[in-house]
Every structure is written in C-alpha cells, then in structure tokens.
Amino acid sequence: FKVFSAPANSNNGRVAAIRVPQGASISRKEIDAYTEFVKIYGAKGLAYIKVNDASQPNEEGLQSPIVKNIHETALKAIIERTGAQDGDIVFFGADTAKIVNEALGALRTKVGHDKGHVDGRAWAPLWVVDFPMFEHDEENDRWNALHHPFTSPKDGHEDLLDTNPGACLSKAYDMVLNGWEVGGGSVRIHKQDIQAKVLKVLNISDEEAQEKFGFLLEALQYGAPPHGGLALGLDRLVTLMAGAESIRDVIAFPKTQKAQCLMSDAPNEVDEKQLRELHIRIRQQNKAEE
Question: Is the CATH code 3.30.1360.30 the one for domain 2-115?
C-alpha cells in the first residue's frame, strides 16, 4: 500500500496509528471533519479502519476503503499492535515523522475531548522522556536542536552524534498532567568534547563556536558536575485545579491573543523623553520600503 510503504521506507518518514475505544460509531461525516482537522498540521489525509470483528482481519471483519489494499498478515499485525477490539476505530498517519507526530497528537487530544475519554475528573500524570536530540530542517538541509544545544545526549548515544544524529536521543523530559505540559527540563552537557560534537552537528564552525560559546567550552575543560533541572508552570497547575479552560483565566494580568494587556493598556505610545532615556530611536518607514 503505497500510502504507507513510501513513508515507512523513507529516512524521515513514519507510519503510526491511534486506537479509539468504541470509536466505530464515529460517523463518516465526523471522519471527514477529522480529516480536515489534521490537514491543519500538514497531513494530506486520514486513513482509518473500523473494527467490527477483530477475529477476522479482512474485509469481512474490518470496514475501511484501505482494507482491500493491505495484506491480511499486515491487518492482523495492526490489530495485535494496536490492541484493537470489536467496536474500535484505528486512525493512521503516514508522512514525515514531524507531520505524523503533530497531526496524530492533535487528533488524539481532539477525539479524546469530543468522545468523552477526557473528563478532567481523574488526575493522570506522566513523564515524557527520550526526546530526539535534533530535528532536520529540510529547507536548509541542516540539523536543529529540538530542545536546546546544551541538552545532554542519552547515555550510550554519544557516538551517534558522529554517525547518525537523527537517531540520537536526549536527556530531556516533560511532566504532563491531564494533557497539559506542567513542567519541562533537561540534564545539561557537562563534558567539553560532547558539547563540541553537538555544536558541530548544528553546523556551527569552530570559529563561530569559540566566538559565541567560548566561555562555556573553556569552563567545561576544567570539569563540571552533571547537572539538570525542571521548571514547573504554576499557572498551568492552578488552571487545572480551578477547572479553567485557559491560563488567562487564572493569571493576574492576562494578555489578549494580540499580546495586549487590558489592565495597563499596554503596549501603548511613549513620549520622546522616555525613548531618549532608554536610548531608543523610532525609525519611520518610507513608503518606498512598504
């Protein structure tokens, strides 16, 4: 099935699935709406399989336009890997890993709320670990740090910095509560040779590295203890505890979506004296530049 095989055999491709318990009752109209929803995240479409009878991994027990294009052995594996049972629906994403992760992640959240799988009454904390160290910028053909360039690689993945940066995982972690990221952090690099390798992966030359991060590289030569941390979002915790929909409902001075403060009416005009005190000059744009 070309829709799945092409991404599966691509270096940066991914095929993934999510199971919705008792989701076979989702109508075709709803599926079409979900298809349009995932397109927001770059997905080209949304394949699905409704499981009417999990014991028959074929067109008899499974309902979908794609079933006829997939071998029964593969269909059986899909049922086993997803744990699908009678009455479930399985949605698929097949594209670049970035698009699949973002589209299916957003779809999972939306379906969870739409179908009552998330009601906010239970406290369900979890840790998200094993983040990739880098993501590939296709347009500029270079690697970018997924977290930041000072995050330590996972133990045993140091050699991948030289051979396969895309497979290198990091010591970054998020704490998630009921679907909200309430904290995040990482263990930092404390070895000079590892930090130099990471900067090299990011296509930062030795000269640029010395100019921008020379103080850090020099300090690491003298030794530094392993160190890391976690930053908690108190406003997000309060939002969950209060049962609010947005952090703007609980913070003291919420901003609008246009970054305006309704309490202080900022941003606003400032007089010339204030600008001079701050050594700021406003440059008027010429019509020719517009």
Answer: yes
